[in-house]
C-alpha cells in the first residue's frame, strides 16, 4: 500500500461537513426549514466560524511581547439560568462564544472545545446533546472533550515552564461554574491574565456578508411586527395586548423571541425610559410609544416608533412627531457623512431639536449656541416631568 492510500478501516470525514442524525442543536438534516444546506447555523458556515477562531488567535499572539509565550484562551458558553428552583429561563447563548463556534449548548467552553458528553438520563429531561465525538465534526474543531475535564486540562496547560498568558474575560463571567477554577489557576500558577474581549469585539464590529443578511432579516421581522402592532392598536385595549402582538408576529416570522423586554407605553408612561410593565389600558387621546425588537440567530433588531392610539394625529401630536422625524433623518445623514462620536451626535441632536422648537414658537428665538443645547434638554425633561405629574 502506497503512502497516499487510506487503510480500509479508516473513514475520511471532510473538514467541513454536518453530521447526520439528531444532535444538540438544529442542523440542516433535522431542521431544513430553518438552516440551509451547507451551513452550521442559519447563514453561517463551519468555515466562517473556523476563520473567526483563527483570526482571534492570530490577533492575540501578534504582539511582539506575546510571540514566545504559551497561550491558553478560554471563552465560556453561557450556563442555564433559573427563574425558580427547577424552572429554567429560555436559554440564550453567550454572544462571544457563539460568534466563534456556532454552538448553542449551555456550559460548553472553547479552549479546545469542552461539551457535555452524551447522557441518556439527562437527555430524557433536557433534550439531545451532541457529545464529544460528534462535536469535532459538527463544529469543525480539532478536539472535543467532556466539560468535566476542563479543570484538569487548564491546570496542566498553565503549569508549563514556558511563560504563559491566560486569555479570559474576568469581569462579568459568562459561566460562574468555571470561574473559581480559573481564579485558582491564576493564584497558584505562573501565568498572567489578559482579556481577549477587546480583540474579539473589534472583530465583531466588522460584519461579514452573511451577518449583514441576518441583521437585515431581524430588522425586517421587527419592522413587520411594529406594523402589525399599529394595525391592532385601538382605544380600550391594553398595552399587554400590543406586547403580545409584537411577540407573536416576530416568532411567527422566524425569530426565536424578543430581543429584550419591549416598552409598550401609552401617554405619560412613555416618559419612563425603561417602562416594561405594559399593563395599562390605552385611551383615545394618547400616543403609544413602542420600543421593541427580535432575535434571529443571535442577531437583534431594535426599533422605536410612536403612533396615536385613535389612529389619527392631533394637530400638536403631528407637529412634535414631524419635528422629531426631521431631526432623526438629519442625524442619520450626519452618521453617513461624518461618523461623529456619540457625544457630538447627542449635542447636534439637542441643537437641532432646539432650532425646530424655536421655529414652532415653543422655545424663545433669542437663544443660541451651547445655551440652546441646555435649554432643549431642560425643556424635554420638563415636558416629561409635567406629563407624569398631570396624570
TrEMBL record:
Q: Tell me the Gene Ontology biological-process terms attached to this UniProt entry.
A: proteolysis
The UniProt keywords, alphabetically, are: Aminopeptidase, Hydrolase, Manganese, Metal-binding, Protease
Pfam families given for it?
AMP_N, Peptidase_M24
Q: Which domain of life is it from?
A: Eukaryota
How is this protein annotated for GO cellular component? mitochondrion
Q: Which cofactor does it need?
A: Mn(2+)
Q: Which GO terms describe its molecular function?
A: manganese ion binding; metalloaminopeptidase activity
Positions of the Aminopeptidase P N-terminal domain: 44-177
Q: Which family does it belong to?
A: Belongs to the peptidase M24B family.
- Can you say what this protein is called? Putative Xaa-Pro aminopeptidase 3
Organism of this sequence:
Papilio xuthus
Q: What is the lineage of its organism?
A: Eukaryota, Metazoa, Ecdysozoa, Arthropoda, Hexapoda
Amino acid at each position: 500500500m502506497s503512502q497516499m492510500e487510506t487503510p480500509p478501516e479508516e473513514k475520511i470525514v471532510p473538514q467541513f461537513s454536518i453530521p447526520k442524525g439528531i444532535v444538540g442543536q438544529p442542523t440542516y438534516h433535522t431542521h431544513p426549514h430553518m438552516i440551509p444546506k451547507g451551513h452550521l447555523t442559519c447563514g453561517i458556515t463551519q468555515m466562517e466560524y473556523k476563520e473567526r477562531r483563527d483570526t482571534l488567535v492570530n490577533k492575540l499572539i501578534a504582539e511582539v511581547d506575546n510571540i514566545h509565550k504559551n497561550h491558553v484562551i478560554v471563552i465560556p458558553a453561557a450556563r442555564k439560568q433559573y427563574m425558580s428552583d427547577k424552572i429554567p429561563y429560555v436559554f440564550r447563548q453567550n454572544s462571544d462564544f457563539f460568534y466563534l463556534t456556532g454552538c448553542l449548548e449551555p456550559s460548553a467552553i472553547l479552549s479546545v472545545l469542552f461539551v457535555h458528553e452524551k447522557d441518556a438520563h439527562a437527555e430524557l429531561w433536557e433534550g439531545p446533546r451532541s457529545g464529544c465525538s460528534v462535536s469535532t465534526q459538527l463544529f469543525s474543531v480539532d478536539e472535543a472533550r467532556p466539560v468535566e475535564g476542563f479543570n484538569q486540562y487548564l491546570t496542566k496547560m498553565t503549569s508549563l515552564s514556558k511563560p504563559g498568558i491566560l486569555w479570559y474575560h474576568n469581569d462579568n463571567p459568562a459561566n460562574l461554574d468555571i470561574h473559581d477554577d480559573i481564579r485558582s489557576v491564576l493564584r497558584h500558577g505562573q501565568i498572567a491574565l489578559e482579556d481577549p474581549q477587546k480583540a474579539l469585539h473589534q472583530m465583531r464590529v466588522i460584519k461579514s456578508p452573511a451577518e449583514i443578511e441576518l441583521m437585515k432579516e431581524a430588522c425586517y421581522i421587527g419592522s413587520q411586527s411594529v406594523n402589525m402592532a399599529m394595525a391592532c392598536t385601538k382605544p380600550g385595549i391594553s398595552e399587554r395586548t400590543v406586547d403580545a402582538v409584537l411577540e407573536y408576529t416576530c416568532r411567527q416570522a422566524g425569530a426565536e423571541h424578543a430581543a429584550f423586554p419591549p416598552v409598550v407605553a401609552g401617554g405619560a408612561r412613555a416618559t419612563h425610559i425603561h417602562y416594561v410593565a405594559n399593563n395599562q389600558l390605552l385611551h383615545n387621546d394618547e400616543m403609544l410609544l413602542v420600543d421593541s425588537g427580535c432575535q434571529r440567530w443571535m442577531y437583534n433588531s431594535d426599533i422605536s416608533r410612536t403612533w396615536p392610539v385613535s389612529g389619527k394625529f392631533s394637530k400638536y401630536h403631528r407637529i412634535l412627531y414631524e419635528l422629531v422625524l426631521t431631526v432623526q433623518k438629519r442625524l442619520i445623514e450626519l452618521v453617513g457623512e461624518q461618523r461623529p462620536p456619540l457625544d457630538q451626535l447627542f449635542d447636534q441632536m439637542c441643537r437641532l431639536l432646539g432650532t425646530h422648537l424655536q421655529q414652532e414658537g415653543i422655545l424663545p428665538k433669542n437663544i443660541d449656541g451651547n445655551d440652546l443645547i441646555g435649554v432643549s434638554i431642560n425643556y424635554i425633561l420638563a415636558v416629561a416631568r409635567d406629563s407624569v405629574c398631570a396624570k
